[in-house]
Every structure is written in C-alpha cells, then in structure tokens.
C-alpha cells in the first residue's frame, strides 16, 4: 500500500460509491465500487450498503482511515437536511451512527464539500486564488465554495429558489431533471444557463467547476453556456467525492 492511503465512500441519492485512494497522488488505487442507494435511503439500509461496499473493497480493517461523504448539510457530525434521502436523517447523529455501525472511526462531511477538497488538492481548483464554486450535477445540485483554496462548508446552492416555478434550482437543473424531463443537451443547457448566470450574479466567482457523473460528458453541454466566469469539468469527474472523502480522513 502507498504511504498515505485511505478509503473514501461517497453516498449519493442514487448510488453509493467507494474506493481506496492514494493520497500522495489523489488517485484511486482500487476499482471504483458502486451499489445502488437503497429505496427510501433510510439510515440502517444506507449503513448496510456502506458495509457491502467496504467488504467488496476488502477494507474492513478498522485501522485503514475512512472518510464518508453524505448528500446533506453536515454540522459537527449531525446531518441537518435530507433533500434526496429519508427525512430520518434530519437532525440525526449520523457520524456516530456510522461509527457505531461500522465499528471504526470515520470522518464525515457533505458530498459536494469533499469533492471541492479533492479538486483543491489534486484537481481544477489547485492553486486558484479568489472564489471557486464547484457544483455537482447529479440527483441534486451540490456546491462547494472555495476561497483562496479554503473551503466554506455547507453552501447548499442547489436550493436557491427559482422564482418562476417557486422550486429549488436542483429540481429544475440537476442532471436528474434532464433525465426526468427527457431533455436534449441543448434543452438542459438552457436550464443550466439560467442556473449558472444566477449564481454568477450572486457571487461573482473566478471559476466554476462542474462535477457529478455527467461531467464526463462536459463537451456536450459546457460549450453551450455563455458566462463571464470560466467553467471547467472536475478533473476527477465523479470520483472527486471518493477522493475528497478519503483525503478528509487523513486531515
Ligand atoms: C443536498 C446537498 C448535496 C447535494 C448533492 C442536495 O440536495 O441538499 O447537501 O450536497 O444535493 O448531493
């Protein structure tokens, strides 16, 4: 094993992904394991799925550092929201729940925030001054605010309101909305244009980074956007969450 190795688990609204990560290089050392997020995403079922991923990775040994990323506001180990998972996670001692259930210490944080950490340490935000906003386009929209390389946690920019339909931006512009409404790349890009223009107006960032599974198709939609701010795919695409969660485990 590499000198600095940790496991990252990225819990999403649709899939739970994991891998063993070389933290010197910020690269996966193992296959990327993925299981479906259980229907309803209740705490015991999510825990069982995480156990399954760890077993498939062969990293049940509690001495291997483990970071877990979760799609909710995370403050002092508690989950405070639940947009795409069971409401049982609201105001829940999630970090302790996983530690008790897995029989090991973990590091626990928001999924988009850890993707931001991965991109600052090993990717598109490395060495960037000013404000970088990473967004993940998946089941929801996650966000990480990075100012001069420092993370400002729990920004939740998927939940800015879209006055026209009185709903969260993520219900209109996440990748799941493209799938749900069977949109073409051009139709989805029109929604992304609204979203990124709005965020650009609110924050005047220096760089946008786009993560989530769909970032591997960045060529299909990023060129269709007209923004003042440069917008680039996450270097680690959909693995940024795994890598960032693992990075967090070693501090
Ligand atoms: C949640 C965020 C999360 C994002 C991406 C949103 O619905 O509120 O906490 O980062 O989805 O998973």
Summarize the structure.
The protein is α/β, with parallel strands linked by helices. The protein contains eight helices and 15 strands.
Describe the structure.
It is built from 8 helices and 15 strands. Strands 1, 2, 3, 4, 5 and 8 form a 6-stranded mixed beta sheet that branches. A 5-stranded mixed beta sheet has the order 11-10-9-14-15. The chain has a two-stranded antiparallel ribbon with strand order 6-7. By secondary structure, the chain is of the alpha/beta class. It folds into 2 domains: 5-113 and 240-249, Nucleotidyltransferase, domain 5 (2-Layer Sandwich), CATH 3.30.420; 125-234, ATPase, nucleotide binding domain (Nucleotidyltransferase, domain 5). 32% of the residues lie in helices and 25% in strands. The mean pLDDT is 96. It binds beta-D-glucopyranose. Residues 12, 71-73, 81, 83-84, 110-112, 136, 138, 140, 142, 156, 158, 170 line the site of beta-D-glucopyranose.
């Amino acid at each position: 094993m590499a000198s600095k190795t940790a496991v990252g688990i990225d819990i999403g609204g649709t899939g739970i992904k994991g891998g063993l990560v070389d933290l010197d290089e910020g690269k996966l050392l193992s296959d990327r394991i993925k299981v479906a997020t259980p229907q309803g995403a209740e705490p015991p079922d999510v825990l069982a799925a995480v156990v399954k991923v760890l077993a498939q990775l062969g990293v049940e040994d509690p001495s291997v550092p483990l970071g877990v990323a979760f799609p909710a506001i995370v403050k002092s180990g508690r989950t405070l929201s639940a947009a795409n998972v069971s409401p049982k996670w609201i105001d829940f001692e999630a970090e302790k729940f996983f530690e008790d259930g897995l029989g090991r210490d973990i590091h626990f944080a928001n999924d988009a925030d850890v993707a931001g950490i991965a991109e600052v340490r090993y990717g598109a935000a490395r060495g960037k001054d000013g404000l970088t906003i990473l967004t993940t386009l998946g089941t929801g929209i996650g966000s990480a605010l990075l100012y001069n390389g420092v993370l400002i946690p729990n920004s939740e920019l998927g939940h800015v309101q879209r006055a026209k339909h009185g709903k969260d931006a993520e219900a209109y512009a996440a990748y799941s909305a493209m799938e749900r409404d069977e949109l073409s790349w051009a139709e989805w890009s029109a929604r992304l244009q609204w979203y990124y223009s709005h965020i650009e107006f609110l924050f005047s960032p220096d760089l946008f980074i786009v993560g989530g599974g769909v970032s591997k198709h960045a060529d299909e939609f990023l060129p269709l956007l007209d923004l003042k701010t440069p917008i680039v795919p996450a270097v680690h695409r959909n693995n940024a969450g795994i890598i960032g969660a693992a990075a967090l485990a070693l501090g």
